[in-house]
Amino acid sequence: MPRKLVVKRGKKLGAAPGTLVHIGDHAQFECTTSVVVYDQENLQIRENVTPQTCHELLALPGVKWLDMDGVHQAAAVKEMGELLGLHPLVLEDILNTDQRPKVEAYDGYLYIVLRMLRFDQTNHQIYSEQISLILGKDYVFSLQELPDDMFDGVRARLREGRRIRFMQADYLAYALLDAVVDHYFVLLEKLGDEIEALEDQLIIEPQPTTLRRIHHFKREMLMLRKAVWPLREVLNQLSRDDYPLISEETRLFMRDVQDHSVHVLDTIDTIRELLVSMLDLYMSSINNRMNEVMKVLTIIATVFMPLTFIAGVYGMNFEHMPELAWRWAYPAVWVVMTVVSAGLLLVFRRKGWL
Amino acid sequence: MPRKLVVKRGKKLGAAPGTLVHIGDHAQFECTTSVVVYDQENLQIRENVTPQTCHELLALPGVKWLDMDGVHQAAAVKEMGELLGLHPLVLEDILNTDQRPKVEAYDGYLYIVLRMLRFDQTNHQIYSEQISLILGKDYVFSLQELPDDMFDGVRARLREGRRIRFMQADYLAYALLDAVVDHYFVLLEKLGDEIEALEDQLIIEPQPTTLRRIHHFKREMLMLRKAVWPLREVLNQLSRDDYPLISEETRLFMRDVQDHSVHVLDTIDTIRELLVSMLDLYMSSINNRMNEVMKVLTIIATVFMPLTFIAGVYGMNFEHMPELAWRWAYPAVWVVMTVVSAGLLLVFRRKGWL
Amino acid sequence: MPRKLVVKRGKKLGAAPGTLVHIGDHAQFECTTSVVVYDQENLQIRENVTPQTCHELLALPGVKWLDMDGVHQAAAVKEMGELLGLHPLVLEDILNTDQRPKVEAYDGYLYIVLRMLRFDQTNHQIYSEQISLILGKDYVFSLQELPDDMFDGVRARLREGRRIRFMQADYLAYALLDAVVDHYFVLLEKLGDEIEALEDQLIIEPQPTTLRRIHHFKREMLMLRKAVWPLREVLNQLSRDDYPLISEETRLFMRDVQDHSVHVLDTIDTIRELLVSMLDLYMSSINNRMNEVMKVLTIIATVFMPLTFIAGVYGMNFEHMPELAWRWAYPAVWVVMTVVSAGLLLVFRRKGWL
Amino acid sequence: MPRKLVVKRGKKLGAAPGTLVHIGDHAQFECTTSVVVYDQENLQIRENVTPQTCHELLALPGVKWLDMDGVHQAAAVKEMGELLGLHPLVLEDILNTDQRPKVEAYDGYLYIVLRMLRFDQTNHQIYSEQISLILGKDYVFSLQELPDDMFDGVRARLREGRRIRFMQADYLAYALLDAVVDHYFVLLEKLGDEIEALEDQLIIEPQPTTLRRIHHFKREMLMLRKAVWPLREVLNQLSRDDYPLISEETRLFMRDVQDHSVHVLDTIDTIRELLVSMLDLYMSSINNRMNEVMKVLTIIATVFMPLTFIAGVYGMNFEHMPELAWRWAYPAVWVVMTVVSAGLLLVFRRKGWL
Amino acid sequence: MPRKLVVKRGKKLGAAPGTLVHIGDHAQFECTTSVVVYDQENLQIRENVTPQTCHELLALPGVKWLDMDGVHQAAAVKEMGELLGLHPLVLEDILNTDQRPKVEAYDGYLYIVLRMLRFDQTNHQIYSEQISLILGKDYVFSLQELPDDMFDGVRARLREGRRIRFMQADYLAYALLDAVVDHYFVLLEKLGDEIEALEDQLIIEPQPTTLRRIHHFKREMLMLRKAVWPLREVLNQLSRDDYPLISEETRLFMRDVQDHSVHVLDTIDTIRELLVSMLDLYMSSINNRMNEVMKVLTIIATVFMPLTFIAGVYGMNFEHMPELAWRWAYPAVWVVMTVVSAGLLLVFRRKGWL
User: Fold this and answer.
1) What is the pLDDT of residues B256-301, one digit of tens each?
2) How many beta-carbon pairs under 8 angstroms link B with C?
3) How confident is the model at residue D3 (pLDDT cuts 50, 70, 90)?
4) C222:D273 CB<8 A
5) CB neighbour class for E210 (10 Å; exposed up to 12, middle 13-18, buried from 19)
6) Best of E221, E263, E285, E337 to disrupt the D interface by mutation (most D CBs within 10 Å)?
7) What pLDDT does residue A145 have?
8) How far is Cα A127 from Cα A116, in angstroms, rounded to an integer?
9) pLDDT digits (tens, 9 = 90+) for A172-207
């Protein structure tokens, strides 16, 4: 999932909606599905489940959480989709992994698209991955592009038999959404630290690379904002609208995540404005330095040009130059030159250039 | 359709609304109409249909798709318009090919205006073409300014007897809208690639032409945004409002296209902000380079001006210059000059200029 | 009506609302009124009508169009106002010719204010004129500040007995509004052509005057936007709100003009952003040129300062300078100087300055 | 009332709401109250009225206008407030003279806060003063910070027995609001004239002080906008909302003032954007001039450095310099120098620097 | 609570909502709670109250105000939370002290989050602290991160038996909100004074540190805006929405605080725009100075280079230079040099450079 400005959608051109081809980078691993079935008393975790087993597990009582890692094998996704009776457009959106975050209500289930962001500190880049959630009456079907430990916290809480075990599928969906938004804070914290380090460097000693790094961070913020902005709207809908699948109680929790997402956006905007201000600071300090350089040049030139001229005058070879023969001419010239340069330096001091 | 900032509307001045004159560039080809009549079982494709035949075909059962290439022959358009009973204002808007995208409900049909954009990679320019769609109860009448293969994908799907054959005229309209919006992604992908190449060039080695290219892309983005922005509103209306001509099911699909159009706009805005940041980067790097140049100049001048002055002093022809006769005066002057220049270079190193 | 940033309203200070004094430049011609009375069969055009005759003509059946050129004679306007029973505030607004575009519903009539814009190509300035329209049940009363041929197209269509003759007064009002908005396109086309010429000049060879012209156009766009922006709202109200004086059918036409006004605004905004981008381009290209100039200076100084220094050294008059007596010293100095300057030029080429 | 960025509110800290202390600059004059009682037939004007007399006058039939100059004597304001039965929060807001414009409905009266702006042409600064209006059923209580002739026009109209005498208290409130907004136009006209003069100066001959003046005007516009922006909302409410104290007829007039306030805001925004454009123009023209300066320097240096070098070469004292003895060497050197400088000037002309 | 761009939330990652861990800097003092119980007649103030005593005091009649200083001891907060029956999410938000201001209605109480800002004049930085308010039917529970004298004014008014003693718990909440917003004015006043001092310095004599200070203030304003912006919405809800816990009368007072918060935001925005304008002024004045410097350099170089060249010419050692032997050659050269330099200075004066 290397970051590109515009992701190719070309393959789909002319294809009917609902044609199932995975659009995105083709990963090199097998798509696997794990299923967790739980209620207050029981918890059953199954890894590497076949669609057939899925079908059986779905018939069990309790909340079912189907978690699929990898969506690059269209056939596997399609099979699961048919199992759950998903609309062709939903399957298409799951496979085209460059969707904007959105929530769509279908008959009997909600389809939620999110973007997971990871910051690779080696090359200072943000990678983006699509997370799809299907929230049904008694199940959640989550799909990630890459195997990841992002939902491990949720899994742990399920295992520990905490509150989440007493709640319905909508609360599980909330827990997954919350995990995603919490990761944004981790990301922003890392970025924020790097930007503050850059800011310190900028104030102490700006360098040409500083500029490129500011540009780089501005670019990252653009991509970040593009990913998070629609998420706010998604969470807003989930916490306000009357989706019957989400209980009144869970809606309170959704409101909390929505709050966090607004906080994320506020922070992104603050960072962006800070970067603009940093660029201004950089530009001005370059100008300041150039001013400094020019002053040195001007002072040197202004002091030495008249002196060199005077020396030049008495280097002329005219036969009739009475001064040349005077006894004290040479020391007098030194006096004149000293006076001239001292005078000029005084003028510069008056102007505040020294 | 060369790209102009403001398209001439002059001809219409003072004319009554409903005066049918084609406003736009007059193309050099014959306007032709093809008709596709289809239902689940049958499919009939007719090229180069006369209005008379159209009239007959319209009476057939099934969905009728009338596709007209070229709107520069006002008479042909008018004849078709009368056949379908279109309002004079609609015909006028079809002929004036610089409309903003919009949807207008008339008695018994919807009039949808879109703009098709094509990127000519030879001269790096975007060309814009007006697409008009009339969605009636059992027909779609589409008009393009130029013969084009844009709708070939839709035609292929009709021929293959896919889902589209089971749906009504509103789904056909959706398929055409979807084809247009999909082309925007192709366009953006090409532009995005060029802009990223430019960005790389900017970071490695900015050049005067870089600046012009940034300006050029900003201009393109302005034109693009102007074309796509109102489209979002059009698709929003089509997917929300209660146009009885669009079924509940098709509305779901319209929502999907609307989603894509928002995605297009997001991408345009991101590119625009990136271009602004690239310009800042360019400006700063020019300033950086000038700073570099100035430093070289200042160092050279500051080192050599005092030396030249010293040489000038001992080039004077005064009769009484005791130093001239000293035995070690010449080497001593060299020592002084070496010390002076070494001292100055040390100062520059301290200032971080070397 | 010379263009001023803020138009004087001083005279009115402290005056009661409804005090009728014309505020604006006092034109040097007589205010004249022409009346057109028409229905499907008959058309009667009367020029230079007295208020008395107006009174009689208003009693006739059919649609009455009263067109007054010049509003600088308050008494004439007042007399007409009383004839039609207009509110004192309306008369005041007609005379104070710096109103923002607006529509106001009064008992039995609508009061519409527009601004007509003309571009004087001699001094490249936009002039603004206030157009007032009173739409009554069976009459339209239009007032312009200057005699003008702007409504000639409408008059021609009335004479030719076209559709307008079959419609009511509201359609006449629409025709007049449409004529005004169409003139904006003429204006924008002229401006657009000039700006594109300026853009070409900017890319080929920017000049100090380019800058002033960009500023000039920015200023024009500001004035233009200020005039057109509220018009959109006016037309929006006329096409949506339930003014009983405007029939359902005419509302369709009003929607069309509103569309055009949005198009005008889009174009203004696009031009404004283009001007901003042009200014950036100009600034950068100046900086580029300065960079160029500085490089030439630095190269020259860096090459010749060391050479001049060397020449200066051997121009010194010390008695003990062994080199001076050497046989091949002079050619050797030439060799040294050639090597030094070649070396420096090589360094510059490496830096990419040559 | 000197203009400050943030007005001190320190005194109120920790105080209960409703603690009546005047916050603002303490003026040096006595607070005085004048009362006008009028109806269609009678008009009674009393200056320097005591609260006791006020009490008696308020019992009279007709409209009562109480106008208080100076609010720095908290006791006097409090006494009047109790006479009219005002809420403690209202009294507090009257005394804290840095309120934003607002309208608040209380039981039986409306409390309207405005800001009066005056432009002092001596030091080119805008001063801001708080105007409070209490509109009761049959009275208006107006409070200004300073004695002023702003409401003299209204007083004159009352004396002349014009329409205002036939209307109720709400119309009087309108007349006072109108007087305030009209003063904004006077202010803007003065500012507009100064800014246009500055613009002319900028184009003809920019100066360092120009920059400070642009900054100064930008600052003024910021303060102005801050004062006028909320006023628009206030007038909007007065012309739309269902305040029973304002009759349907007066609402029409209120709509008119609201229109004017929007016009004021439009003008402020236009001026602000113009100032931004002027700053750009200034920056660019400085850069242009620097470019000009650099070119002169570069041409001079480029022409004279080689010449000086040549002269330096033949000023060397080597014993074996064959050229020195040649008969035509001296004229030949002049020829060489002429050719070199002519060639360089030609190069500069080619580059367009001359 | 040192100011950071992004506050760490890392600890919570993967934790269930409702896990009570204090997130923020761990202060070094004991969390203490004071309780005030009051009605019209009685007032009881208790410091350092244990939860047990709290429980008893809550059972008393009258309004109870529980004020807790320090939230870093999760256990203490949790105990109080359980005493009052607060939702786990509320407790979590109280402990995570980087919430955005918000108001949330729960069963039987309102949860209000505010941010208190303090300006440390030693290091010119703004510190931010979270204030949580729980408004129940007859109690207010307030939590601050640090012991502070901010609410001392409210305490004093309670002691003095003023109006606040006659009101309910909602009015107490209002009094606390009002105290917080009033502190913003203190903060802004201090900042405003510093910024105006900086502005004066900028106009009189800009310095490199000026730039950093502008950047510093811009950063502070960003943080400030981020804290105050959502507060406006909170207060808006409290003054408009139908929270049954807030009486009609208190709502009037809430409207007043909301007014103040809008005023705070207006001021922040004005300051921000002023800072932008100051930066422009700074940049331009640097450019102006550089222009000044360049002019001096150019004048000096242009005057002395030709003179030095002339002197160099007559310093050449050709045997055949007839001028050298002329009687008046030396004075003639001086005349030529004077004329040349005078001519150049005249040119510069014409150009306005002198």
Assistant:
1) 888 888 888 988 988 998 998 898 888 888 888 888 888 999 999 9
2) 170
3) very low
4) yes
5) buried
6) E263
7) 87
8) 8
9) 999 999 999 988 888 888 888 888 888 888 888 777
Please report residues of C whose CB lies closer than 8 A to that of B279: 280, 284
φ, ψ of residue A159 to 5 degrees: the values are -65, -35
Closest residue, chain A, to E322 (C-alpha): A318
Say how far apart CA A127 and CA B198 lie, in whole Å: 22
What's the pLDDT score for residue C189?
85
Contacts of E113 in chain A (CB under 8 A): none
CA distance A51 to chain B (A): 26
Q: Are strands E125-135 and C139-144 parallel, antiparallel or unpaired?
A: unpaired
| Residues E246/E258, Cβ–Cβ less than 8 Å | no
Distance CA B173, CA A286 (A): 57
What are E116-163's pLDDT values in tens digits? 887 777 777 778 889 999 999 999 999 998 887 788 889 888 888 777
Out of A175, A182, A253, the one facing E9 most closely (by C-beta) is: A182
User: Looking at the predicted structure, is the pLDDT value of residue A258 above 80?
Assistant: yes
Task: Using an 8 Å CB-CB cutoff, list chain A residues near E218.
Answer: 273, 277
DSSP states along C307-320 = HHHHHHHTT---S-
Q: Would the CB atoms of B9 and C266 count as touching at under 8 Å?
A: no
Residues of D in contact with C314 (CB under 8 A): 316-318
* Interface residue of B3, B5, B7, B20 to substitute, partner C, most C CBs within 10 Å: B5
Query: Is there a contact between A131 and A113 (Cβ–Cβ < 8 Å)?
Result: yes
What is the nearest CA distance from C334 to chain B, expressed in angstroms?
Answer: 18
Contacts of residue B16, Cβ cutoff 8 Å, sequence gap at least 6: C157, C162, C163, C164, C175
For chain C, list the domains and their CATH numbers: 10-284 (3.30.460.20), 293-351 (1.20.58.340)
Q: Count CA atoms closer than 13 A to E158's CA, side-chain side.
A: 25
For residue A103, the chain B residues in CB contact (below 8 A) are none
Transcribe D196-240 into DSSP letters. Answer: HHHHHHHHH---HHHHHHHHHHHHHHHHHHHHHHHHHHHHHHHHH
What CA–CA distances, in Å, run from D198 to A8, C4, D195, D274, D310? Answer: 53, 14, 5, 11, 51
> Do D321 and E316 count as a contact with CB atoms less than 8 A apart?
no
Query: What is the band of D331 on the pLDDT scale with cuts at 50, 70, 90?
Result: very high
Tokens of E113: 């989050």
CB B134 within 8 A of CB B111: yes
Q: Return the pLDDT at C304.
A: 94
Residue B22 has pLDDT above 70, yes or no: no
Flag whether pLDDT at B71 surpasses 90. no
Q: Which residues of C touch B219 (CB under 8 A)?
A: 274, 277
Contact (CB<8Å) C189/B215: no
Contact E288 D212 (CB under 8 A): no
The chain C residue lying nearest D278, using CA atoms, is C215
Please determine, for residue D21, whether its predicted confidence score (pLDDT) is greater than 80. no
Determine whether the interchain pair B281/A325 forms a contact, defined as Cβ–Cβ distance below 8 Å: no
Residue in this structure with the two tokens 């960005």, named with its chain if needed: B199
pTM: 0.79
CB A9 within 8 A of CB A23: yes
- Determine, for residues C192 and B279 on separate chains, whether the beta-carbon distance falls below 8 Å: no
Question: pLDDT band at D11, cuts 50/70/90?
Answer: very low
Strands E102-106, E125-135: pairing kind: unpaired
Least Cα separation, residue E154 to chain D (angstroms): 6
Q: Residue D4: list chain E partners with CB under 8 A.
A: 192, 196
Please write the tens of the pLDDT for every residue from D156-211.
889 887 778 889 999 999 999 999 998 888 888 888 888 888 888 888 877 778 88
